[in-house]
Amino acid sequence: MTAFLKMHGLGNDFVVFDARKSPVSLDRAQARAIADRRLGIGCDQVIVIEGARNGANVAMRIFNSDGGEVESCGNAARCVAQLLFNESGRDSISMETAGGALVCRANGASVTVDMGTPSFDWRAIPLREEVETKSFALEIAGIDLPALKSVSALSVGNPHCVLFVDEQGLGLAQSLGPIIEHHPMFPERTNVEFVHVLTPNRIRMRVWERGVGVTMACGTGACAAAVAAHRRGLAAARTDVILDGGTLTIEWNGGDAPVFMTGPTALSYRGDIDLEALTR
């Protein structure tokens, strides 16, 4: 049997394995089976905590519910950081991910994560071809939507496409999200954010996560939404991003400044699972 934790950040939920003492080796099929909400435990992402690497306190591997391993997850980073704060008594830790190193610090009842500097270079996101990533037209046959004439693209350790919509447009996450995720412009697929700006300090967002679907919250998605809005003069440097599951506070001062994300974490329960039986 293998021990696990069920955690979430604003409803974006995770199954967390600690492989620092007892190795946990997951393949795509196992991750997909664990994430299955009928036959497995059920989650948006499966997380594996590994030992120190590249000078960081720990490393974190992230598998989406479709079994694919991905680069970064802001909500999971907060959850793992909270576990390590409780374990060590420290109030700051560093974490290595495939999308880059993250530094997390305790912030009252919340956790703040330094998500690093966003990238707007079309090759780094990556995109299929060179465009002005601040605003460009994304063509989809048969769909004439004003928001598609001026989307934003960026990387916050993973790829994002941000659409600015009216309040009704938030409902497009379920139908348009998967189309954009697999759009040829995004060779590694993309997360998709549907953003309605309420005030310069408050934006509403719904998200289609790459390899997962619509989720209650997405940390990197909230960062991407706030950064894209600030870059286009629609939001302030400090912005509350209201998601289906709650609110994250995002700070970005522009240019090469890092993005800071602050929000809560929760431990739902602890359990044990027979990984071999799950995929037998």
What string, H for helix and E for strand, traces the elements in order?
EEHEEEHEEEEEHEEEHEEEEH
Strand content: 35-45%
Quote the distance from N terminus to C terminus.
14 Å
The total strand number stands at: 17
CATH topology of the largest domain: Diaminopimelate Epimerase, Chain A, domain 1
Categorize the overall geometry.
Answer: globular
The gyration radius over C-alpha positions equals: 18 Å
Helical content (DSSP H or I, runs of 4+): 10-25%
Tally the helices: 5
Uncertain stretches of 5 or more adjacent residues: none
Instruction: Please identify the top-level CATH class of the largest domain.
Output: Alpha Beta
Describe the structure in your own words.
It contains five helices and 17 strands. The longest helix is centred in the first third of the chain and has 15 residues. By secondary structure, it is α+β, with helices and mostly antiparallel strands. It starts with a strand and ends with a helix. A hairpin with a 2-residue loop joins β14 and β15.
